[in-house]
Each structure stands twice: as structure tokens, then as C-alpha cells.
Amino acid sequence: MLKKILLTLLTALLLALPWWGAGGWSLFFAFVPLLILGDQRPRYYWLWVALAFTLWNVSTTWWVGNATPVATFGIPVGSLFFTLVPFMIFHRFRFRAPQPIVWALFVTLWIAFEALFMNNEISFPWLTLGYGFADTPQIVQWYELTGSFGGSLWVLVANILAYLLWKQWRERKWLAALPLILWLVIPIGASLIRYATYTEPHQPVRVAVVQPNFDPYNEKFGGLTTTQQRDIMLDMADQAPRDVDYILTPETAFDGDFWLNDLTANPEIDTLRRFMDRFPRATLIAGATTFLRYDDGEAHHRWTRTDPLWRTSYDVYNSALGITAGQTDVQLYHKSKLVVGAELFPYPKVFGMLEFLNIDLGGVSGSLGMQEHRTLFTNPTGIRSGVAICYESVYGEFFTEYVRRGAQTMFVITNDGWWGDTPGYRQHFRYARLRAVETRRSIARCANTGISGLINQRGDVIDSVGWDQRALLTGEIQANDTLTPYVRSGDYIVRLSLLVLGLSILYYVAWRFRKRSLLLDEE
Q1: Spatial distance between the Cα atoms of 312 and 305, rounded to a whole number of angstroms
Q2: Could you say which of 57, 358, 363, 519 has the lowest number of CB atoms within 10 Å?
Q3: Which helix (H) or strand (E) holds 93?
Q4: DSSP character string of 264-322
Q5: Higher model confidence: residue 159 or residue 261?
Q6: Range with the poorest average pLDDT among 106-110, 164-168, 356-360
């Protein structure tokens, strides 16, 4: 019993360390204790596996519960499903199939379920294995080729090699260490060379990042009026150099009854436009909640709401507005990767009776609207930038669409204050470092509070403002027009994994059929 407990706890610890800020090194061996435990074919093995994965999840994402107790249980349950199921399917075949098929299932099933967790409405890809290297982008510069799923593949194969090494090491087969050493050293060495030799194109873009540090519980949506908040942010922005190209404000920074039906006539927009007269070459990126009213007979979306008192149907969006001096039109983007339970109620036909559990984050509860494709913002000098709003920066392939559509720089606007001074905002910031490597786009990140910062195309943090600080961060990032292989191809690692998974299943079926035929022939 003690051995089972120790092996289970060791796997949980090794999996959790990267999200505690210790780098991704422990991931290369994290599954080995569970594999060793599986060799004994213990009764209720699935319970030990479930315990390990639950401890990993809870110890790294407990902070989500600061905003709502529902997430305290919902996220671990969802994450457990998407980790326990692939591992136990692999274990089911572990002693019943040829070893190459067994290990192919281990890798491809895990990646398939990671992708499934990333690409459905109940989505929380926070613990994708490849994200464990967010603290050490120097060793995963090759993410520009594969994206973060390449990191997941790297980790899973390393665990197979480490487990096989453990088995052969007991038989004093020292050369068995060579495959594992090469599997780790070659990508790391190539990455370090790429890191040392990569040169950013010299296309400077000057940005000013406003971190107002409004407490979301006591100030943002209650303690301070919207006018007071606006004035504080504009006073901070007014300290920026007059030759900046972009001024960034956080997610849902402004509130002014922004009805998209007649946005250009909105008095709050006019105030912001007049403020931008001081920055003739800049565009203001303003986070805002916007609304779209429907006329009678117009088609609605699944997220459309109806006010029974006024008999009005309307959509609500978490938006970014682009405001430039002298331009009547307002550039616009709506957040499209929404936070489950706060901005998106998943699969309403299935879970409709539970909609009362939706969280109120940002002053508006219920499902928000989305847009199908990414749109860009262009400043008066012609610099094209994409704006990922909060949670969107967690999704690698989604992030690449901005770049494929022409973004030369990337911005992330967010409000990480909901989770308090916890690992959550630090983890969220690190993921932007991976997006910079994958796309080779410099990133300016603007948080209400959390970490605002500038990240270069190698994933280095150029400058930052930490938790609970009100500050204006100004600096220079470099634009880039080149598309990386990952931007061009997306998550092809997932597609290849699904292909190999399908072929492995077909091979196993054929192998079982042939084996049964041989047994019948012998009879």
C-alpha cells in the first residue's frame, strides 16, 4: 500500500512542478511511477491514476475557485475525464497488444484527448503537457515548427523511453540510456542554437500599456464609477510619449452603453476620440462590453437575450475597440474563445437546467456573443496588430489565425484580478511567451492587474509590471511579417496523432483476427 501511495504522489508532484514555476524538466519522467505501478496490475488501478491526476489538477488550478465555488469542482472533474480516460484505455491494451501498438496508443490517445479538451465548449486546456515549458521558452524554440502539441509529443515519448530505461537499467543494460539522452539533448541543443541566433526584424512599434489596477470585486464593478475609471486610465495614458503607435487598455476597461447599432455617435467614443488627438499616429485599443440590438424579425443567435419588459432582443460581446484621432469608424473585434461558465454556457440543449450556475465576471452574466473569424487593428502608420482577449491567448492554433490574416504584432488584453494574488495570473502570462515563439510575433500584454508586459519574438520578457501595481508601461517591440511553419500548418501534430491512432486500432484488430485464426488452425 505504501509503495502505491508513494508512486501515485510522485507522479502528481512531477506533473505539477512546471505549473508551480519549476520549469518543465520533471515532465519527462512524470508518468514513469504510474507505469511502474501498472506493471503490478493492482486492483482498482484506475483509482490510483485518478488520484494522481486529480492532485495534479487541484494543486495547480485551485485558484479558479476564488471566483466561484462551482469551478472548484467543475474543472477538476472535467480535467480528470480528459486525462483518466486516455490513460486507462492505454492500460486496457497494455498487456493485450504488441508493444509498438501499446506505446502508440499511449502517445496518440493522450494528444487526441488534449486536443478534444481544447476544441469543445467545455474547454480548459490549461494543463496541456506542452504548456509546461512556458517558463523556459529557450529550450522549445522549435515550437515555431510544431506548436505546443510538439511539446506534448516530446514529453510522452520521453516518458516511454525513461520507463524502458528503468526496466533495462535493472539488467545493467547501460546503452539503453542512449535513446532517452538523444531524445532530450538534440531538441534542447537545436533550440538553444536557434535562441542564440534568432534575430528579430527591425520594425519598431512603440506601445504604451495602461495597468489601472482596479480591484474587480470592490472597485471595477462597484466602488468606482465608470467615469472615474475612465478618467484614471486616460490620465495614465496621457503620460505616454506622443509618438507611440498603440495605447492599450485592459479587457472591459470602458463602459459606456456601447450599442453597435450606432457606435460612432456614442458620446463615450467621442470622448476617447478627442483624447486621441494628442497622439496623431496612434490607435487606442479599448476593452469594452458592447451590445447589438435586433429589430423585429431579424435572425437571432443561440446567445441572443430577450428583455421581456422592453421586448428587445440583443447580443452582448466582450470586445476590443480601435479608436484613432480623426477617424469616424471604430475598429472592432469580439472575443470568441469564451470562458466556460462565465461567458459561455456550454451545450444548452444538454445542460440547460443548470444555466443558473453561470458566473458573473465582468458585470454581465450569461453567454456572450462571438465572431467567426479574427479581425485586425491598423494604426495610422499602417501597422497591423491582432488583439487576443484574455482566455484567447491560451489557444495556440486559434492564436495563429490573427497572424495568418496579417498581424505583424500581437496584443493580449485581460483582467486577471478575479483570481487574486495566486499562481493563476502568473501561469496566464507565461503562456503568452509560448505564443510569441510559435508565431514569432512580439506581444504587448495589458492586464487590469496581474502582469502587464512586453515579450519579444524569442519569448523573452523585455519589461513588465507586476501584481497590484498601477502603472503605465511604455516600450518598443518589433513587427514581423514572416509566417512560421506552425502558423502555416496549425496543429498538424494532432492530425498526425489521429492518423496514427486510427492505424494502430486497425493493426490491432487485424492482429487479433490473425491470432484467433492461428489458434483455430492449431485446433
Answers
A1: 8
A2: 519
A3: helix 69-94
A4: GG-HHHHHHHHHGGG-TT-EEEEEEEEEEEEPTT----TT-EEETTTTEEEEEEEEEEE
A5: 159
A6: 356-360
